[in-house]
């Protein structure tokens, strides 16, 4: 994994995701240069921004914070390929929001999702109903749940992580890496996490099989040996252990 992390770099992403996304596409190539980012904030520091600014992507950036979106609209005011969608994302409205983009295909190069809440349920709605067919998916997972548990929060369309324990977190939200791998296993290969243990990277199986350099990560325990992650497992998870979790 260290060899992969050395390929990472940060232009606009939170950590080194920009380089890792480029590394994947250096191997599978861009196809239609469309990116969806769900909960992109202002769209300036996010996983889509480097693709927009340096690779001429069409971008659909979703967020529920009007003030953040306003900053993004101002920043990209001269880029007609960037569209912001402002709404509180739920399983009930995600289809309508995607339909409003008027895409002529559901296949996109990249889906990035970081809701800090109903991530698992929204992703399940997208993938199982074929609302989008991403070639690559980047997901933030709840690292404090460790490598062995397949857990997420109960679905609640009004869920707000900041109403719960947020020491070092938020801590009560999202889903474990194992839960995401199990959800996607019939269609996607988990290839690596980034070096701070926030995001997981998946390649669609048909695209994965066309290249030979990137290998499937079959032992996810390596993603939980990162010092920040180990601290979270030991110190943050006990704070929310007794809250309601759904076993998948």
Question: Which features characterize this protein?
Answer:
Rossmann fold; alpha/beta; 9 helices; globular; 9 strands; 248 residues; single chain; 19% strand; 30% helix
Task: Please characterize this protein's 3D structure.
This protein is α/β, with parallel strands linked by helices. It has one domain: Vaccinia Virus protein VP39 (Rossmann fold, 3-Layer(aba) Sandwich), CATH 3.40.50.150. 30% of the residues lie in helices and 19% in strands. The strands form 2 sheets. A 7-stranded mixed beta sheet has the order 3-2-1-4-5-8-7, with helices on both faces. It has a two-stranded antiparallel sheet with strand order 6-9. The longest helix has 14 residues, at 227-240.
Task: Quickly describe the structure.
The protein has helices spanning 2-5, 17-28, 49-55, 66-75, 94-99, 119-128, 177-184, 205-208, 227-240; strands at 34-38, 58-63, 82-86, 107-113, 133-140, 151-152, 188-193, 199-204, 246-247. With 248 residues, the protein is α/β, with parallel strands linked by helices.
